[in-house]
Amino acid sequence: MTDARAIADAALGVPGVAGLTGGPFGTVATYLPGERLAGVAVRDDAVEISIAARAGRRLPDLADDVRRAVAGLVGPRPVNIRIDDLVENLPAGNMPAGNPPAEGQPAGNLPAGDLPVENLPVENLLVEDLEEIP
Questions:
Q1: Distance between CA 39 and CA 86 in Å, rounded?
Q2: Label partner for 129 (CA 20 to 30 A): which of 9, 16, 69, 80?
Q3: How many helices, marked H, and strands, marked E, lie in the chain?
């Protein structure tokens, strides 16, 4: 079986990839002994990688770069890239430093919809800018 962790590491090493996501309903995952690796699904007929992308690059180019980065790890199988989230590039120093991964989550792995928000600059955010969620 192909090493899903090596595929995840290669995808995370591509400039422009902010993290891995579980995709819709957490369905993009590989089950390893004692853990679930979200963001990479290795199947007999294809490999699916679900990412959060950093803003500033053409998304098709980013997807191609991820495919190239994992090509030597997946054999002849096609690689399908899902871009499930877009993360705005923040000026240096505005991203929280050293947010530890949640228990059971490898570093760099972002569960669907859960991006770190502590210490983000909010000085220009007004309460009126927020939508109330019913």
A1: 15
A2: 16
A3: 2, 6
The amino acid at 30: T
Q: What is the pLDDT of residues 25-79, one digit of tens each?
A: 888 999 988 889 999 999 999 999 999 999 888 999 999 999 999 999 999 999 9
Q: With beta carbons less than 8 A apart as the criterion, state whether 116 and 96 touch.
A: yes
- 124-133: burial string, b at 16+ Cβ within 10 Å, e else: eeeeeeeeee
Cα separation of 10 and 67, whole Å?
Answer: 10
Domain ranges of the chain: 4-117
Model confidence, pTM: 0.66
**Mean pLDDT, rounded, of the chain:** 76
Sign, Cα dihedral of 60, 51, 100, 9: negative
